[in-house]
Amino acid sequence: MRILLTGGCGFIGSAVVRHIIGATDYSVVNVDKLTYAASLEALGVARDHPRHQLVQADIADAEAMRRVFAESEPDAVMHLAAESHVDRSIDGPADFIRTNIVGTFTLLEAARAYFATLSADRRARFRFHHISTDEVWGALGDEDPPFNERTSYDPRSPYSASKAGSDHLARAWQHTYGLPTIVSNTSNNYGPWQFPEKLIPLVTLNALEGKPLPVYGTGANKRDWLYVEDHAVALLRVLEHGVPGQTYAIGARQPRRNLDVVHAICAVLDELVPDPAGARERLIHFVTDRPGHDFRYEIDPSETERALGWRAEHDFAAGLRKTVAWYLENRAWWEAIRAKTYAGQRLGTAA
Predict the structure, then answer these.
(1) What CATH architecture does domain 2-187+228-251+296-314 belong to?
(2) How much is the pLDDT for 293?
(3) Which residue, of 186, 197, 292, 324, has the fewest CB within 10 Å?
(4) What are phi and psi of 101, to 5 degrees?
(5) Mean pLDDT for the chain?
(6) What is the distance between the alpha carbons of residues 307 and 108, in angstroms, rounded to a whole number?
(7) Could you give the CA distance from residue 231 to residue 227 in angstroms, rounded to a whole number?
(8) Domain segments of the chain as ranges
(9) Distance (Å, rounded) from C-alpha 280 to C-alpha 278?
């Protein structure tokens, strides 16, 4: 199988590329714009593998997308390219509209034109897998049941609204044009190679360097945490076995309050690299909550688990320990990022 994968140098996308190259005989054409959060190093051994081809291109560039379909002749698409940081979407929503909505529309149109040229046999096998987020479903209260495939959409930030729009486009191209699309929505991912503006790497690196650990509000906001490599396995399973027109909710059953995550990171670091100044929890301080901060996300993955025979392997404690250890062992990668001016402007982001 030849897979056209967008955003393959991003955090989740690179994990998917590594998994495909390492666990299958499939080939990957990796389309990535190589923006600030992209990392060629994250591709690992897949970077120079003969079954991996990197194409630097913008998914919102219609001519480039037509060309990549014509030249690669894929059997399937995995669409992961997206702007994904909520705080950035609040500060500058235009990039999110362009990439997540216009880019997805452009990619769908290129896929539709290409799909029309395929033989009946190849059309029957073709899939367009659109990867999304649980944030499109809004926020849960403490007593609300977790999200599932039938939860109504209620996005609250420019980021989640743009992803909700792209989900609707993917489904509309299925119903209107017969393009065999599948949508999956996932909870918060964490693990190696995550850009250090996100909660877990941000807190890990700030705590390691003795910097303040800002926590929004009271830290009571809760997220369901999925180890990125478990997600990569699930995404390929969706592509291989998912039913066009269906939605798959992918979660790990590992909800934690933000404050508890910060405490857990401090505890792991205190064990692995003790700070002579004392326990790192001393660095925690609470800051004004961000606008529209969703209280709780949590996914019930029961239907996906049954349909795909998949279940997340990592519990949060084990996955977090592996992640913190990875950042300790890969200082050169994140120190280079934190040294850049734009990173310095963003890394004060709170949890």
Answers:
(1) 3-Layer(aba) Sandwich (3.40)
(2) 82
(3) 292
(4) -100, -60
(5) 94
(6) 26
(7) 7
(8) 2-187+228-251+296-314
(9) 6
Class of residue 285 by CB neighbours under 10 A (exposed 0-12, middle 13-18, buried 19+): exposed
Specify the amino acid at residue 142.
D
Flag whether pLDDT at 214 surpasses 60: yes
User: For residue 349, is pLDDT > 70?
Assistant: no
pLDDT of 343 > 90? The answer is no
Q: Where are the beta strands (DSSP E) in the chain?
A: 2-6, 27-32, 52-56, 76-79, 127-133, 181-186, 188-190, 213-216, 222-227, 247-250, 255-257, 284-287
Tens of pLDDT along 68-101?
Answer: 999 999 999 999 999 987 878 888 999 999 999 9
Higher-confidence position of 89 and 163: 163
List all residues 6 or more positions away from 59 whose beta carbon is below 8 Å from its beta carbon.
6, 31, 33, 65, 79, 81, 99, 103, 104, 106, 107
Spatial CA neighbour of 12 closest among 141, 142, 131, 161:
131
Point out the catalytic residue in the list 114, 159, 190, 248.
Answer: 159
pLDDT tens sequence across 261-299 = 999 999 999 999 999 999 999 999 999 887 778 889 999
Contact 110, 65 (CB under 8 A): yes
- Which of 32, 58, 83, 135 is catalytic? The answer is 135
User: Has 159 been annotated as catalytic?
Assistant: yes
- Write out the DSSP string of 62-98: HHHHHHHHHHH--SEEEE------HHHHHH-THHHII
Distance of alpha carbon 301 from alpha carbon 312, whole angstroms: 10
The verdict on pTM exceeding 0.85 is: yes
Catalytic residue list contains 134: yes
Is the pLDDT at 65 greater than 90, yes or no? yes
At residue 161, φ and ψ (nearest 5 deg) are -65, -40
Give, as one character, the DSSP assignment of residue 41.
G
